[in-house]
Design goal:
The protein contains 2 helices and 2 strands, in the order ββαα. By secondary structure, the chain is mostly helical. It is globular, with a radius of gyration of 15 Å. Bound molecules: zinc ion (ZN) (2 copies). One of its GO terms (biological process) is protein ubiquitination.
Length: 83
């Protein structure tokens, strides 16, 4: 019994490595385990900066319209306008 490993059970965002004390962690794609967890705001930031709509690991295509976040709608509309 290694009770000292309990501290490793804290869920963290795979992008910013912060926990969910400030923002709830979600599993937006089909990755499993701790690698699937991330903040919605981090996901938005990552998708925007990397100019992609799919998870780099599981290739899951994010249904962005269901995120219902104004900043994502704005950035996507901007990207489509430019393209
Ligand atoms: Zn994060
Ligand atoms: Zn994934």
């Amino acid at each position: 019994m290694l009770s000292s490993q309990q501290s490793l059970d804290v869920n963290t965002c795979r992008i910013c490595h912060d926990d969910e004390s400030l923002e709830q962690l979600v599993e937006p794609c089909e990755c499993s385990g701790t690698v699937a967890l991330m903040h919605i705001s981090c996901l938005e930031k990552w998708l925007t900066t990397s100019n992609t709509r799919s998870c780099e690991i599981c290739k899951y295509r994010f249904p962005l319209q269901t995120l219902n976040k104004p900043v994502m709608v704005i950035s996507l509309a901007f990207m489509e306008t430019v393209a």
